[in-house]
């Protein structure tokens, strides 16, 4: 099965889990490269908006890693709202954690708050 986003796996600052990929956003150029590569793909992009000071985000981190390992067909991007205020503003990530689901460059859904069951449900719904 071919993919239009093979370059995502070459993006620096990626964290491989057993079966999945989390791309840690380190620069706007990296974000733009990932986002642009996903526009031409029907793959699900899950943007995990987080912050170092966010307790619920820290509590969700191990759950997110486990979820990522179950859905290797999706791409997960971790975005620090303090470093990327413009990206957070674009997606109205005002309450954390926030997970925004994107396909072909368009937001299709979101989960706000530490809700791992809802996160899994929405990934299941949108992954194909």
Automatic annotation (TrEMBL):
Q: Which residues cross the membrane?
A: none
Signal sequence bounds: none
List each copy of the Thioredoxin domain by range. Answer: 1-128
Pfam families in the record, alphabetically? Thioredoxin
Q: Which InterPro entries match?
A: Thioredoxin-like_sf, Thioredoxin_CS, Thioredoxin_domain, Thioredoxin_H-type-like
**PROSITE patterns with a match to the protein in the record:** THIOREDOXIN_1, THIOREDOXIN_2
Q: What is this protein called?
A: Thioredoxin H7
Q: Which gene encodes it?
A: LOC108828348
